[in-house]
Design a protein that fits this description.
heterotrimer, A mainly alpha, B alpha/beta, C alpha/beta, A: globular, C: alpha/beta, eight-stranded mixed sheet
């Protein structure tokens, strides 16, 4: 289908742009950070590792920039991200794969919850326009959407962990439990994830409530909603199939578009909670100047966001027959 | 009796701009309008207030803060007191003073990044939208790519290589990465402007492209540009603080983010210095909220649909409104409308859109409702069908609508739901808008069937096919989506849908006006045939009375929310009683008979907010006389027809003028 | 015989439709030719999608023709090279648009387009005299009192008034031809006649020619000297307005006329149950484009595109059979 091909094309172009940025940024920085970085590694790594890193980064002094670029692309394509300095001598790829499930579980699920919940609240508050619910929730969440994620995380820890002791302060699980699919571990992990999850939901939900509410209000003035009323359909049927389904279409695009923003905020939440996910590892790598790990994580975050956007696109195509044909 | 002619009908075409609002009010620009509505919006006021507060802090930190923010002269970790409003830091600095001095940087970043990002967004978005073609393709792709790449991690990557970069670098990086959302919106706005005739007019006039972009496009997008600025400013505040918080900013700078960084490093919350960690966040949140609230308010102001107006019932008085005596419906009539009035809220007060309208509709009758735009004809029929609500807002303020023995005005939504579509259905002006774009025609028919019957899927399908054949459409189109059908077919499909339960009344709101003449004609013929075959009654709204000439039994002519004339179609065409009807008939050039000069009706319909004191048609009436300006005419019965005009009172003084009791 | 004001020859405009690699072409206007004399009002009649608005935009140089040429006062329009030549053409040929609600920029006062017209095309009008000139053109189109109207913003005027502003800004540049694209179709019935009358007055007073583009045959008869009938991008009939409307030769013109709602006609319900719609002409084969809806179609109509040919004094029709057949049908109807 032409539509899917087009979106896949966009996916690839964006991915290429992210990879290229990754390659160029250290080289564009004053004093060529890539080379400066290599010299920093010199005392700390054995020559073999250093050489491997050189190849991974394409910072071989004997290579031209263009040649280095293609070597770099080749490495990325084959999953050679080099060796992590922080977790030496583990490979970057291995480390990244360890952190990924945590982030997917926390950020993935909370983002979906925030989207679904925000969309539902937006829809209902537009439907019940002018009621107390509509008067209170949207403005409230507009304000919370302006909260810095990390600050809210700090407050949450202070209030719910330190003061009230309801939830664990930090981490993704209790280090004394055995990691695995057993009841103790899962409940413990869930317990650890509640605060960070709430933080993300509270700050992310506002945008979706607002856009969904505004879309729905616009859609509610459409003739087809009036027509649905004229047909004597039940209110919930009108609300979901007529108003909701049409209002959610632009919201899905908005969902895709703001994902990058949400993920950025979630990184800080993981950081504050010492949550063992991609975001926390990302900031660790920044702190330790572990550039190989950092670059790989940046690419991973980008790819994840892109996959989510692709999913949103496909959902749009399923919900909107016009998109399917327009291609 | 001689009738004085209207004094100011000098202009043949009579486009004289009437007594509008006072001169002063006309001298305001769109910008001023925007400004005024923003000031009326509570959210905007709160946002502006907050912003102003921070601007003051940023402008005079030395005067407001009691201390040098870096003077480590106090005991560390003090709690809040009069001298130290929010206590001191672990280094013995005054938290309050640090907050005040930190404002400047956050505000500066917000404004600079907002400005830079908006400038890029305007250039990219508008050129992409206006120039189109390959330029648009390339620019849109770049915009989307930048939008989709997670910006914050990217900024962290950049900051990781370029640590402790100054304010300048931060602003550039945030600005260069943060324009894409605004650009996307500006582009789509420009695209929608491109179809507006005024841009084409400028091009035809010979304007240069640069002039069109700068002077024709940009001024119309003020509110969107502002929104884009506010959005970028909000994002800049949050991202800059985030960067500083994780230690990627200059640790010696005075900013809220840096304060949070030091507070976190000293575990201020746990160590009894909560305000050190809380207050910078509160400030960031408040500044962010100021931008978010302003943005929200602009959204509301610039799209009128988002503004909610409540009708103040008090003071809404229809001219002839009176309590309608309870009287049972005549069994030969399917519908009796008695003294129906509808009002809606406008920016300048309540407007009576339907003023004391009464009529009866016999079973199987075809009634045409004609009038110019905004005369209240659509509001009338949607009030009867109990379908008022945005965008045709309004509330029934008086009157009864008797349909099959019950008063529709008093029915609850639930009671209404049971008679809807079964007993009466509605056909709207544009099927393109009235059919749900994401459901097939068949699914929309099934919806209606399931709501009102216990038909099986099979039966529903058979019935749907049957009604499609009735309107001469191939039933395969039950599987089509609305956009896949041509205009004429969509309109027919909607009529087919209205016939599902063979209701006794179908309300049609200009069902043919979206069609070409040939399609219009054949659809009218079809409607008439179906009506004769199935026997339903029709209320047919149109602005074009010639259209219903050969189809309607009676005509209701509306003018300025009131009934001007009601009578049998043939008689009304041959011998119009009201000067307005007469004028309307004279306004149609014909393809038959001699080519003669027509005059139409001078002037334009009155503003319903301030209708003329006397007869509403008097200012445009060629036969108006003194009494018309002073008194309100009532509906009179003349030869079995109704007309609202003093010309038809039997004698000027006669008190026995047969007034029609509704 | 001297050169007409406007001569259009073989005017053709195709649009690429579909996706990037698609070669499908929408034939919006195909091989259209006509002439327009100074001081003449010619109506171009057709339904939506017939290509009439495309012709307006080709004349206004918004689009470039795919083929064919427009001659204005004998000079080919495609030869306009310099900006001053193009400006000169823009001041000779002005345009009035369909939608009065979107044809004036809402950010400016209604006089903005008139002033810009003066700035661009009437260098002779000194800056300080511009205001007076603006008011003069407002007065000319019956917008009174002009000084007061000049202070208004578009949303403060009614649709009819705005459409007059459209005519005022067209007139301000002293054009020789005004292309009016459906100028009354979005106005209320009671106001339409006023705008139509304005066109005839301006022709008489200022000597401007008009190309009046419309879907409304009755209004074409009301204002125009000659009528051109357009169907699916082809000109199918041409002749003096009264002739064409009283004795239509092309089956499409006949169908169109039978569908016109007419309050004065004593017709009953006609049996015109044609449910067809004008086709979207994408990559057409030769043949008459009306054949699918035509009651008189013969084998030739399937394969040969009928050329526009004379069938009487000043009458042209593009139909293989219609002359005899349609004459009969037309006679029957009368």
């Amino acid at each position: 289908m032409r539509f899917v091909a087009r979106r896949l094309g966009f996916f690839l172009v964006t991915l290429w742009a992210a990879v290229t940025l990754n390659f160029l940024i250290p080289r564009l920085m004053p004093g060529n950070a890539a080379i400066a970085m290599m010299s920093r590694y010199k005392g700390r790594l054995n020559p073999n590792a250093l050489h491997a890193l050189e190849i991974a980064f394409g910072v071989n002094a004997h290579q031209s920039l263009v040649h280095a670029y293609f070597t770099y692309l080749g490495n990325i394509a084959t999953g050679h991200f080099g060796i992590s300095l922080t977790f030496f001598p583990d490979t970057v790829a291995h480390q990244v794969l360890q952190a990924l499930p945590w982030t997917l579980a926390l950020v993935g699920i909370t983002t979906i919850i925030a989207f679904v919940l925000g969309t539902a609240i937006g829809l209902v508050s537009a439907w019940r326009r002018g009621t107390a619910l509509d008067g209170a929730l949207p403005p409230l969440f507009v304000i919370t959407s302006a909260f810095p994620y990390f600050w809210l995380a700090l407050l949450a820890i202070w209030l719910f962990s330190i003061k009230l002791g309801w939830f664990p302060e930090s981490g993704g699980y209790d280090v004394t439990t055995t990691v695995g699919w057993n009841w103790t571990f899962v409940t413990d992990a869930v317990n650890h994830s509640i605060l960070p999850a709430l933080t993300i939901i509270v700050t992310a939900i506002g945008g979706w409530i607002l856009t969904m509410r505004n879309n729905t209000i616009t859609v509610l003035t459409e003739d087809y909603v009036r027509m649905a009323r004229a047909k004597g359909l039940k209110p919930w049927r009108i609300m979901w199939t007529y108003a909701g389904r049409n209002a959610i279409l632009p919201n899905l695009v908005g969902f895709a578009m703001s994902l990058g923003f949400v993920v950025g905020g979630a990184i800080l939440v993981e950081f504050v909670f010492n949550y063992p996910g991609v975001g926390w590892m990302f900031l660790q790598s920044v702190e330790n100047q572990d550039y190989a790990l950092m670059q790989a994580l940046f690419l991973l975050i980008t790819v994840t966001v892109l996959i989510a956007i692709l999913a949103a696109d496909i959902a749009t195509a399923i919900l909107d027959p016009r998109t399917r044909e327009r291609g | 009796m001689t009738l004085p002619s209207v004094a100011d009908s000098v202009e043949p075409a009579g486009a004289t701009v009437g007594s509008g609002p006072p001169e002063e009010a006309t001298r305001r620009s769109v910008g001023a309008d925007l400004f005024r509505s923003v000031l009326r919006n509570k959210k905007a006021l709160v946002g502006l207030g907050l912003l102003l507060f921070f601007v003051v802090l940023a402008a005079f930190p030395g005067e407001i803060a009691p201390d040098d923010p870096r003077a480590k002269v106090y005991p560390p970790g003090l709690g809040p007191s009069f001298h130290h409003l929010f206590g001191t830091t672990a280094y013995g600095e005054d938290v309050f003073s640090q907050l005040v001095f930190g404002t400047r940087q956050s505000l500066l970043i917000a404004l600079l990044v907002g400005g830079l990002a908006t400038a890029i967004a305007v250039v990219v978005g508008v050129s992409a939208g206006y120039l189109g073609g390959t330029t648009d393709g390339v620019l849109s792709l770049i915009t989307d790519v930048i939008l989709v790449i997670p910006i914050f991690p990217l900024i962290i990557v950049i900051a990781a290589y370029e640590r402790n970069s100054g304010l300048f670098t931060l602003v550039i990086v945030l600005g260069v990465l943060g324009w894409s959302y605004g650009a996307r919106q500006l582009r789509s706005q420009t695209l929608s402007l491109r179809t507006r005739d005024f841009l084409e007019a400028a091009r035809v006039r010979g304007e240069r492209k640069s002039y069109v972009i700068v002077h024709e496009i940009l001024p119309t997008m003020t509110s969107l540009i502002l929104a884009s600025f506010l959005g970028a400013a909000l994002y800049a505040v949050l991202f800059a603080a985030g960067l500083q918080f994780i230690g990627l900013g200059d640790p010696n700078s005075q900013s809220w983010g840096t304060m949070l960084y030091w507070a976190e490093n000293n575990e201020a919350l746990g160590a009894g210095m909560p305000y050190w960690a809380i207050m910078p966040g509160v400030c960031i949140a408040l500044l962010g909220a100021a931008f978010a609230l302003l943005n929200y308010a602009f959204d509301e102001v610039s799209s009128p649909a988002l503004r909610l107006r409540k009708l103040q019932r008090r003071g809404v008085e229809a001219e002839g409104a009176e309590v309608v005596p309870a009287r049972p419906q005549d069994p030969k009539n399917i519908l009796e409308v008695r003294s129906l009035s509808v009002a809606y809220a406008s920016e300048h007060g309540p407007v009576v859109a339907v003023d004391d309208v009464s009529f009866e509709l016999a079973k199987g009758e075809f009634l045409g409702v004609v009038g110019e735009s905004a005369c209240g004809k659509s509001t009338l029929v949607y009030a009867i069908a109990r379908l008022l609500g945005a965008p045709l807002a309004g509330e029934i303020t008086n009157g009864q609508v008797l349909f099959k023995g019950q008063d529709m005005v008093t029915l609850s939504d639930k009671q209404l739901r049971h008679i809807r579509w079964r007993d009466y259905s509605v056909v709207m002006q544009s099927a393109m808008n009235a059919l749900n774009p994401v459901l097939t025609i068949g699914a929309q028919m099934r919806d209606a069937c399931e709501a009102h019957s216990t038909m099986s899927r099979r039966q529903i399908e058979d019935r749907s096919k049957e009604v499609m054949r009735l309107v001469s459409i191939d039933p395969v189109h039950l599987l089509s989506y609305p956009h896949q059908l041509s205009g004429g077919m969509r309109q027919r499909a909607m009529i087919a849908m209205a016939l599902l339960f063979t209701p006794e009344l179908i309300v049609m709101d200009e069902p043919t006006s979206a069609l070409d003449v040939v399609g219009q004609r054949s659809l009218m013929v079809q409607i008439k045939e179906l009506q004769e075959q199935l026997g339903f009654a029709v209320i047919f709204v149109t602005h074009d009375m010639s259209l219903v000439r050969h189809f309607s039994d009676r005509l209701l002519v509306m003018y300025a929310a009131q009934v001007a004339e009601l009578g049998r179609t043939r008689q009304l065409f041959e011998k119009p009683l009201h000067p307005y009807t007469h004028g309307l008939l004279d306004a149609f050039p014909s393809i038959h008979g001699p080519r003669e000069r027509l005059v139409g009706i001078p002037g334009s319909p009155p503003d319903l907010l301030r209708p003329p004191t006397g007869c509403r048609f008097a200012p445009r009436c060629p036969q108006a006389f003194a009494r018309c300006q002073a008194e309100r005419p009532r509906l009179l019965e003349v030869d079995g027809e109704l007309v609202r005009c003093f010309l038809h009172e039997p004698a000027a003084e006669a008190p026995a003028a047969k007034e029609v009791v509704a | 015989m001297s050169e007409p004001l406007l001569r259009v020859e073989g005017l053709t405009r195709h649009f690429r439709v579909g996706k990037l690699l698609s070669r499908q072409k929408l034939h919006a206007v195909d091989d259209v030719g006509f002439e327009l004399e100074p001081g003449e009002i010619v109506a171009l009649v057709g339904e939506s999608g017939s290509g009439k608005s495309t012709i307006a935009r080709l004349l206004a140089r918004v689009y470039k023709p795919t083929a064919g040429e427009i001659y204005f006062e004998g000079k080919p329009v495609s030869n306009l090279r310099t900006r001053s030549q193009r400006l000169a053409y823009a001041s000779d040929v002005a345009m009035v648009f369909q939608d009065p609600y979107s044809s004036i920029n809402p950010a400016y006062r209604v006089t903005h387009p008139i002033e810009r017209g003066l700035v661009l095309h009437r260098r002779d009008v000194a800056r300080r005299r511009r205001e007076a000139e603006v008011e003069r053109s407002l007065t000319e189109v019956g917008l009174l009192p002009a000084a007061r109207v000049a202070g208004k913003f578009p949303h403060e005027l009614s649709g009819g008034q705005r459409q007059r502003v459209g005519f005022a800004s067209a007139l301000a540049v002293k054009p020789k031809l005004i292309v009016a694209d459906e100028p009354v179709s979005m106005l209320d019935v009671s106001i339409r006649i006023g705008v139509l009358n304005l066109m005839t007055e301006l022709r008489e007073r200022e000597g401007v020619s008009f190309l009046y583009i419309t879907h409304d045959v009755a209004s074409a008869r009301y204002v125009a000297d000659r009528v051109l009938v357009l169907y699916a991008g082809h000109l199918v009939e041409e002749g003096p307005a009264e002739e064409v409307i009283q004795r239509p030769k092309h089956p499409y013109t006949q169908l169109l006329l039978s569908a016109v709602p007419d309050p004065r006609a004593e017709l009953g319900i006609s049996d015109a149950a044609d449910v067809g719609e004008p086709p979207k002409v994408i990559d057409p084969q030769p043949g008459c484009r009306f054949r699918a809806r035509c009651p008189f179609a013969i084998a030739d109509c399937e394969t040969v595109t009928p050329p526009l040919r004379p069938i009487g004094p000043e009458r042209l029709v593009a139909c293989h059979v219609a002359v005899a057949e349609a004459e009969d049908a037309a006679l029957e109807r009368v």
